[in-house]
Amino acid sequence: MIYLFYGSDAEKVRSKAFEWVEKARAKESNLAYVRLAREELSDVALEEVALSGGLFVKRLLVLLDDPFPVARIASEDEDSEEGSTNSVIEAHIDALAASDNAIIILAPKLAAAKAKKVAAKAKVEYKFDTPLAREIVRGFNGNLVNALAARSREKLWLEIQRALRAGDAPEMLHGLLHWKARDLMEKGSRSWTPKESRQLSLALIELLQHSRRGGLDLELSLERFALSI
Questions:
Q1: Which residue has the higher pLDDT, 167 or 99?
Q2: Domain 141-229 maps to which CATH number in 1.20.272, 3.30.40, 2.40.30, 1.10.10?
Q3: pTM value?
Q4: CATH T-level fold of 1-129
Q5: Residues 6 or more apart from 121 whose CB is under 8 A from it?
Q6: C-alpha distances in angstroms, 222 versus 1, 18, 161?
Q7: DSSP code for 35
Q8: Cα angle value 43/94/202 (rounded, 5°)
Q9: How far apart are CA 126 and CA 158, in angstroms?
Q10: I need a labelling partner for 127 at 20 to 30 A (CA). Which of 106, 107, 109, 166 fits?
């Protein structure tokens, strides 16, 4: 079953999606949780998302983080990913909707036509558009992503420490950092060249995968990452 989080207020969409995940994990302790970034999506990955289950883990809780990229012209040293990502999601949308697993599609600023198609398959849709008077949303850490954008390792390490002490889940912090890395790729940056921002995105994916395989704890991995940029 699909739970769709989308809307023009990217900060609130992300905040509410991760808040929903935390509540679901607290409510159903035997849920196995995994977050998949856009670059990790494939036919095989989505088939596993739709069909996986087992004796000890009856259901999965899967967050598909920003699976629909912003339309842009690919640079010479990177492949265009929009068509392939869109098609792989669409090819499996019926299986994801029919799955017993809880599948959250986190898609801030999703185009209206695409949102309509996905929402039609969702069990529940949550839309958060930017209000006229913007509210402060706990969950989207502007200082954190700005430190990454500015390439300030000391400030980034400090913001990670503050967020962890405030109770933010490391998975949420990683999601924000990876979202910002992709944002830097798409919009450009004075502090990061296109090649460097792409390498940054890949490094964050590898960091998460290594942590999942039983490597360094994700909290410590994030702290080490901050000091490496």
A1: 99
A2: 1.20.272
A3: 0.62
A4: Rossmann fold (3.40.50)
A5: 2, 93, 94, 96, 97
A6: 31, 18, 10
A7: E
A8: 35
A9: 32
A10: 166
